[in-house]
Amino acid sequence: MAQDPPDIFDLCVLGCGPAGFAGAMRALDFGKHVCIIEAAEIGGTGIMWGALASKTMWEIAKDYAIANKQDRGYRVHGISVDYCEVRRTVLQAAKEKQYQMLSQIESYSPNRWDGPGSLTLKTGWGKFLSKNEVEITCPDETRERVKSRYFLVSTGSRPRKIDNILLDQERIFDSDGILNLQCFPERLVIIGAGVIGCEYATIFSNFGQTKVYLVDHAKRVIPYEDEDVSDFVKKNLARSGVKIIHSAKLRNILPQAGYLQATLDFREGHSEIIEADAAFISIGRRFDPSGLGLENLGIDTTGTNILKTDENCCIKDNIYAAGDITHNPALVNIAEMEGRYAVKHMFGRTRWPLSYRNMSTVMFFYPAVAAVGLSEKMCRQKKIPFKVAYYSNAMCNRAIAMRATQGFVKIVVTDDEQQRILGMRAAGPQVSSTIMSIAHFMDQGQGVLDVLKSIYPHPTIVEGIEECLRMLVKKSIFKPYPFPDLLKVKSWHPETGYVDEKK
Ligand SMILES: Cc1cc2nc3c(=O)[nH]c(=O)nc-3n(C[C@H](O)[C@H](O)[C@H](O)COP(=O)(O)OP(=O)(O)OC[C@H]3O[C@@H](n4cnc5c(N)ncnc54)[C@H](O)[C@@H]3O)c2cc1C
Ligand SMILES: NC(=O)c1ccc[n+]([C@@H]2O[C@H](COP(=O)([O-])OP(=O)(O)OC[C@H]3O[C@@H](n4cnc5c(N)ncnc54)[C@H](O)[C@@H]3O)[C@@H](O)[C@H]2O)c1
Q1: Smallest-distance ligand from the CA of 39
Q2: Cα gap 234→242, rounded to integer Å
Q3: Which of 53, 111, 272, 469 is the 20 to 30 Å CA partner of 250?
Q4: Does 198 belong to an annotated binding site?
Q5: Ligand minimally distant from the alpha carbon of residue 337
Q6: What is the end-to-end Cα distance of the chain in Å, rounded?
Q7: Statement to judge: residues 252 and 178 lie in one domain
Q8: Three state DSSP letters for 129-196
Q9: Which of 248-257, 334-343, 387-396, 443-452 has the lowest mean pLDDT?
Q10: 191 CA to centre of ligand 2 in angstroms
Q11: Which atom number of ligand 2 is nearest to the Cα of residue 196?
Q12: Based on the domain organization, do 144 and 51 belong to the same domain?
């Protein structure tokens, strides 16, 4: 079984991270001939430099922290952790996924599959020569040209740099280089307390081998989230021993013999010097168009750090873009959704518009924090009157049984009769799964009473969601009045601000 590789592909995908891979597979569904060009590691940041690798490390660190707990009748003696073994496990996890991706591509290659459609993988750096042609610079410096009717640019993002800090990826790392770390540093300074900074602060503090300093120029960790969510994350990090330093600008990191010296300048005027053995810079990620040849398509990216796409992920004519390279949030689920949608649009298969509404996310802290839809902060900014109920996991039987009561469910609804669900923030065990139960209801535009027609199993973490919803309609089994710190219902209106519901 075989077929000749096409002279002109239907689709050429630049970059095989989550966006490119998902897009290529959708084109295969339509019987198209696809060329996938990948410059480095298949899976991109989604697998090797980001999501899967960091989540593997997070899982191992969380299990290690739980094994170290002393509140459940057992005590583990002689527990130890070897960073080299942890790193090996992380690389193994990434490789497992990469091999699945490669196996699928190989199975549909023209020399093994007789159609319809095919997948051809080429390794090298892709650069546009024209709207129908890309040049690949292969690892051995040879060049090859690929012609295609459509292109999907899915080349991802790169970590933002600080001008005067030299990332050697030996002692001073960013997320692209952190897998080079060879042992637990005694002291680690993390610059940037966003998602990546807080996730790595969680990982290293959970292993208990490293003193972690977490520095941000803002006044809060994950500054874009609601204040109570940010406070919750900060409290948990501090409990794990992380030293959090706010309102501080990094002046420089000077490598010394055997250690690093980081100088921080504070808003109030004073400075502080921190000694560390390793530094990790996590101050955001940005799109980098250099070397893609976009100028050969008449696309000017000077002075912008995003690639503008239209509502169908199209940049221009037959050129589409998806994933981190676009101006939308940098997440695997968004990258995959855009990659799939772009391909559907180019081949005339779309049935409804692309929607970013109700996109759920999970931040892997200890415990994890999940989010979907609008937060209180977003509602206030948009001047949308809302009602919000807060339910602490300390009241949830399953969380009590798990001895894991740090966490909460917080649901925001419209302040009207229908009480349409606008958003949820939740922290604690299993939130990465439970968030979807609310996301589904939001997609369907359901109100609280509609949702409460379902009966939840017992004892489960989702019962927290059920009770939180019941609180909004004054039907909860436990009432806020006797438990004012654990159960709360408030409403907010642009004119009146917050009003507590007392009963
Ligand atoms: C530490 C970390 C943890 C994360 N955790 C999560 C998480 O838990 N959940 C989540 O949803 N998201 C997470 N993310 C974000 C997520 O990884 C990205 O949003 C996602 O990988 C973006 O997918 P992409 O396909 O757009 O780009 P990428 O995954 O970056 O893939 C782009 C690919 O393009 C290749 N490439 C670049 N230029 C060229 C070229 N000219 N020619 C050929 N190939 C090229 C690159 O080598 C790369 O393989 C995390 C990110 C980081 C850094
Ligand atoms: N679990 C997940 O879903 C997950 C995990 C990791 C990454 N991601 C994605 O990756 C993206 C990038 O993550 P990130 O954490 O690098 O970015 P971020 O935007 O989440 O956070 C950057 C942080 O750095 C701070 N900062 C910026 N410049 C600074 C400076 N000069 N000095 C000190 N602090 C500074 C900001 O105040 C902010 O707190 C995220 O936005 C997210 O989309 C997602």
Answers
A1: 1
A2: 9
A3: 53
A4: yes
A5: 1
A6: 72
A7: yes
A8: EECCEEEEECCCCCEEEEEEEEEEECCCCEECCCCCCCCCCCCEECCCCHHHCCCCCCEEEEECCCHH
A9: 443-452
A10: 10
A11: 15
A12: yes
The alpha carbon of 156 and the centre of ligand 1 are apart by a number of angstroms equal to 5
Q: Is the CB of 368 under 6 A from ligand 2?
A: no
Directed axis angle between helix 462-472 and helix 431-443, to 10°? Answer: 40
CA gyration radius, the chain: 25
**Ligand showing the shortest atom-to-Cα distance for residue 54:** 1
From CA 233, how far away is CA 428, in angstroms rounded? Answer: 11
Report the distance separating Cα 342 and Cα 155, nearest Å. Answer: 14
> Alpha-carbon torsion 92, 98, 101, 105, what sign?
negative
Average pLDDT score over the chain? 95
List beta partners, residue 84.
none
Looking at the structure, do residues 49 and 120 belong to the same domain, yes or no? yes
| Closest C-alpha to ligand 1, atom 47 | 40
Query: In this predicted structure, which of 288-302, 366-380, 388-402 has the lowest mean pLDDT?
Result: 288-302
> Using CA positions, which residue lies closest to atom 9 of ligand 2?
330
Indicate if 178 and 147 belong to the same structural domain: no
43 Cα–ligand 1 center, Å: 7
Residue 261 Cα, ligand 2 centroid: separation in angstroms?
A: 23
Enter the pTM of the model: 0.96
What's the CATH code of the domain at 417? Answer: 3.30.390.30
Please report whether residue 138 resides in a domain.
Answer: yes
Question: What are the pLDDT digits (tens) for 403-425?
Answer: 999 999 999 999 999 999 999 99
ipTM topping 0.90:
yes
157 in a labelled binding site:
yes
pLDDT at 30 over 70: yes
Residue 195 annotated as part of some ligand binding site: yes
Name which of 153, 182, 178 is nearest 168 in CA terms: 178
Pocket residue to mutate for ligand 2, from 49, 54, 283, most atoms within 8 A of Cβ = 283
Q: Report the pLDDT value the prediction gives residue 444, as an integer from 0 to 100.
A: 87
Task: Give the catalytic positions in this structure.
Answer: 458
Note down the domain range covering 114.
8-56+85-157+287-346
- pLDDT for 302: 81
Q: Is the CB of 15 under 6 A from ligand 1?
A: yes
In a domain, 315, yes or no: yes
For residue 195, the CA-to-ligand 2 centroid distance in Å is 5
Q: Is the pLDDT of residue 140 over 80?
A: yes
Beta bridge partners of 150: 11
Pairing relationship of beta strands 259-266 and 125-130 according to DSSP bridges: unpaired
Give the residue, by CA position, lying nearest to ligand 2 atom 25. 192
- Looking at the fold, whether 269 and 338 belong to one and the same domain comes out as no
| b/e burial code for range 309-318 (CB count within 10 A of at least 16 → b) | beeebbbeee
Residue 176 sits in a domain whose CATH number is 3.50.50.60
H-helix or E-strand spanning residue 492: strand 487-493
Q: Using a 6 Å cutoff on CB, does residue 119 contact ligand 2?
A: no
C-beta 198 within 6 A of ligand 2: no
